[in-house]
Design brief:
The protein is α/β, with parallel strands linked by helices. The protein has 3 domains: 120 residues, Nucleotidyltransferase, domain 5 (2-Layer Sandwich), CATH 3.30.420.40; 68 residues; 172 residues, no CATH class. The protein is built from 14 helices and 9 strands. The strands form 3 sheets. The chain has a 5-stranded mixed β-sheet with strand order 3-2-1-4-5. It has a two-stranded antiparallel ribbon with strand order 6-9. Helix 10 packs across helix 11. 24% of the residues are buried.
Length: 387
């Protein structure tokens, strides 16, 4: 055991079973499969898996556990292992799929997936999984259920519209559809009230959310979805991480002289993109300066309306993250003030060059704390999270 570098348990999770492979990496960088087994995805099966894993591991060597984010079926195992003090990593299924393809695997089954995860965990240093707090988990359930009910209501309203314009209307069908719409509207109202109540239970959180609602076009449901799907922005240190997680990152397709189409990846959290769809229309309609200017600028460059609105979605998401991270109130004239400040500095520098004053002397009297378009020149406030 002294020649081992690390150990990893790869877990392929399904609704009913857990396929696991225990692998090791030695000093010669050789990956070896030590054992494999299948357990039931139940509390009893998870405890049995733990006993089996402890019988195989070397106590003095680091052990990590890697699994895919398979729906909600992985959460029970991840929560248990995290509470027991194990180092758990969770990756998206597409990332695991691409890794197996890079290894040359053409077939796919639970055993191959578990073996690939065990090898991937040994070769790559993956970030550790951080569980959602109880309130964030509740908020995520509420917002996702609200999204489902809203989609169902739209379906029934479309069916009613089609029924009213059909050649033959059936009263019983119309009555059933109207009843379903009324039931869903009542449930939607109850969910919205529950979301508001959950946020208001924490005064500091409610105050912080209120600052974001100063953006015309951004409502409580939008903010609630963003907090629920990002764990209160707790794991995002850079805006690029948030953009990539949400699927707003740009994918290039270029090789040599060939230049393919550049597009948005959409490989991210679809709930966030749905939540940002309507607010993007609203901030442009309400003529919020920074977003209206971006929309008009992209249209002038020949972009389609939807491309311009997607860019607005991305910018609005970054702005909300910035305001939340710095605990600031939205200032619609921030960019205009920054532009005037920049022009004033350039004017001072131009005048100084004519009078023989150095640029360093100008900077001593120039306003400090200049910010970029998506950053506000204020100290970062204390991070808040649900507890």
């Amino acid at each position: 055991m002294k020649n081992l570098l690390c150990q990893n348990l790869g877990v392929d999770v399904s609704k009913d079973s857990l396929d696991v492979v225990f692998s090791t990496l030695d000093m010669e960088r050789q990956v070896r499969v030590k054992a494999s087994r299948k357990f039931a995805n139940t509390p009893a099966g998870i405890r049995q898996l733990q006993r089996w894993m402890e019988s195989k591991r070397a106590a003095e060597v680091e052990l990590r556990i890697l699994m895919e984010a398979t729906g909600v079926y992985y959460e029970q195992l991840a929560w248990f292992l995290h509470q027991q003090g194990y180092q758990v990593s969770v990756i998206l299924p597409t990332k695991a799929k691409r890794y197996l393809q890079a290894l040359g695997h053409r077939s796919k089954n639970d055993s191959i997936d578990a073996k690939g995860l065990a090898r991937m965990g040994l070769e790559q240093l993956l970030p550790l999984w951080q569980p959602l707090s109880q309130n964030i988990y509740q908020l995520r359930l509420l917002t996702r259920q609200l999204e489902d009910f809203s989609n169902q209501r739209t379906v029934f309203l479309n069916q009613l519209h089609a029924l009213h314009h059909s050649a033959f209307a059936v009263k019983q069908v119309e009555k059933s559809l109207k009843k379903m719409v009324r039931t869903l509207e009542k449930s939607i109202q109850e969910l919205e009230e529950a979301i508001q109540e959950l946020i208001c239970q924490d005064p500091l959180l409610a105050e912080r959310v209120e600052k974001l609602l100063a953006i015309k076009g951004v409502g409580l449901k939008t903010v609630a979805v963003l907090l629920a799907e990002t764990n209160g922005f707790a794991t995002f240190e850079k805006q690029g991480q948030l953009v990539s997680y949400s699927g707003y990152d740009v994918v290039e397709n270029q090789s040599g002289k060939r230049s393919g189409k550049t597009r948005m990846s959409k490989k991210g959290n679809a709930h966030i993109r749905r939540a940002m769809h309507l607010p993007a229309f609203s901030v442009v309609r309400y003529k919020e300066p920074v977003f209206a200017a971006l929309h008009e600028r992209l249209l002038a460059k020949g972009k389609t309306k939807m491309q311009a609105y997607v860019a607005v979605q991305r910018k609005l998401l970054i702005l909300i993250w910035t305001l939340w991270r710095k605990n600031q109130v939205y200032d619609p004239l921030h960019d205009q003030r920054h532009q005037k400040q920049k022009e004033a500095i350039l004017s001072l520098e131009a005048g100084a060059s004519l009078s023989g004053v150095s640029a360093a002397d100008v900077n001593k009297v120039a306003p400090q704390g200049r910010a970029t378009q998506d950053e506000h020149p204020a100290p970062i406030g204390q991070e808040l999270s649900f507890r």
